[in-house]
Amino acid sequence: MATRRLIKRTRTRVPEYTCLGCPLTKSHSLWCHRLCVPKDGMGVCGRVAPHAVMGRTAEAILRFKIHRGREQGRVA
Question: Is 68 exposed, middle or buried (0-12, 13-18, 19+ CB in 10 A)?
């Protein structure tokens, strides 16, 4: 049974079913090969780069290391 869309999409040049692959590897795969250097969290292909996204744990470790480095810098 077909369901109706909640948000009606406007007409675009690229059809919904077109698979945009990685421009670096010329691959038509759906996943990221993590080869590009993301700029502001976006990959070369224009999508969100998963290798630029940091999780909660990684952010917490980074904040801890920065805080610890500041404390050691003041004491020394």
Answer: exposed
- Collapse the DSSP code of 76 into the 3-class scheme (helix H, G, I; strand E, B; otherwise coil) and give the result: coil
**How far out from the chain centre does Cα 21 lie?**
15
Do 23 and 45 meet the contact criterion of CB atoms below 8 Å apart? yes
CB 23 within 8 A of CB 44: yes
DSSP helix/strand/coil, 48: strand
List of residues 6+ apart from 11 with CB closer than 8 A: none
57: tokens are 């744990």
pLDDT given at position 5: 59
Distance CA 10, CA 12 (A): 6
Q: Give the pLDDT mean for 13-31.
A: 68
